[in-house]
């Protein structure tokens, strides 16, 4: 054989040689065009120097032809990729678009998981108290275990795959709920330790799978916010339904009934994940491309250390979620204390001066659903108030390829406002007197508004994580940052044994104020100054005057 030609075999391939019937569509077109540019087609190699010499053109002409073809193919490749991305959400199966099917795949599993989580949460306090064990000690043990395991969970998940990790979560949750059926102290301790691990999985695996899968399928970036908003609505709706289901199961099977129901729902979610979800990984598309879990953990730690925005997001997440989880533990005894001096005909009060816990809990979750539904509308209002129209289109391309109408700065402003408002609401039980007959009603209303804010800012937090965290290691980062959350909750719950609930709420208020300030620090200083100038009453009056003159 002679010397191999420096020109690839693409020179013998004419674009006319491909008929419309044989041309591949969507992603296959992209693959073909990449192979064409690389000249690695194996069908017709130029083996010898004589074969190359027999071509009816010079080497310089060949170079020019190849470069021209390369430019044309790149343009065609970009068009095909764009068309493929648009078609990915418009193709229809059984009358449903590709995006709608993907949305249902995630939300059905998410609903089953949240129902199971809500079932066990409604009667956990009652179950442990009935067994005669310290509720706060067992409850906080799970978060202590979560704090120790958080740094390792994410890298391992990115190594084994998010689908397998979701299946592992379901399997471990079934074990936990089974152990809760027996008043054995060692079994309860084991269930709480495993529960710390599964909590880390719950708040990282499913969202990281969603973000990675959404982008790998080529859906528009702004549609990710739709699913994140739906997740919040589903979570709160499932909590409302789980309260009713738990009540019925407890009537028939006792305090262990809700835990038995949780086993069945978790098994249903396990079957769905195993049969419907596809696998995705961190730092690659398949397990063979991944670094070791130790390297993954080190990389995640270095990312947090070197990127101040990600570390600030971790602090915000720890403060806000830590406050929420501590509030979950505090609201019942707080309202019980205020109920003693309330009027007997107050809404939410039983005849025996006890709060109607089921009604109040359902109202909390309904407010969360309302907050989730109103989030897109309120975010658009914030966008119009804070960002001039001529800047919105330019800003929509920040952080990712395209966010459409999604404005990162507007999301930061909205979260900061929600945190500061929540801080003010937490001060209500601090300053109101227990002897005040309206204290129960006022405090309940404050808690309802707080739950509305939770439903409002939770989708925004998911969007912020997707904007600032790298897609290939998002699970590692999320679980490592949950160390702050677990420590905050463990300290908050344990402290309730030693400090009054008013002091605990004052601490929660301070935490939310810090979270609001840190969230605002993510916005560039010049943008804050522009926003303040835009909202200045003099500026508004001047613009109104100019508009009236033109009219």
From TrEMBL:
Annotated spans, Disordered: 1-24
Protein name: Molybdate-anion transporter
Biological processes annotated in GO: monoatomic ion transport
Chief place of localization: membrane
Job description of the protein: Mediates high-affinity intracellular uptake of the rare oligo-element molybdenum.
GO cellular component: plasma membrane
One matching Pfam family: MFS_5
Source organism per UniProt: Chaetoceros tenuissimus
One GO molecular-function entry: molybdate ion transmembrane transporter activity
Keywords: Cell membrane, Ion transport, Membrane, Transmembrane, Transmembrane helix, Transport
InterPro entries linked to this entry: MFS_trans_sf, MOT2/MFSD5
SUPFAM superfamilies: MFS general substrate transporter
Transmembrane segment boundaries: 93-116, 136-157, 178-206, 253-277, 356-374, 413-432, 438-458, 479-499, 505-524
Membrane topology: Multi-pass membrane protein
Compartments, record wording: Cell membrane
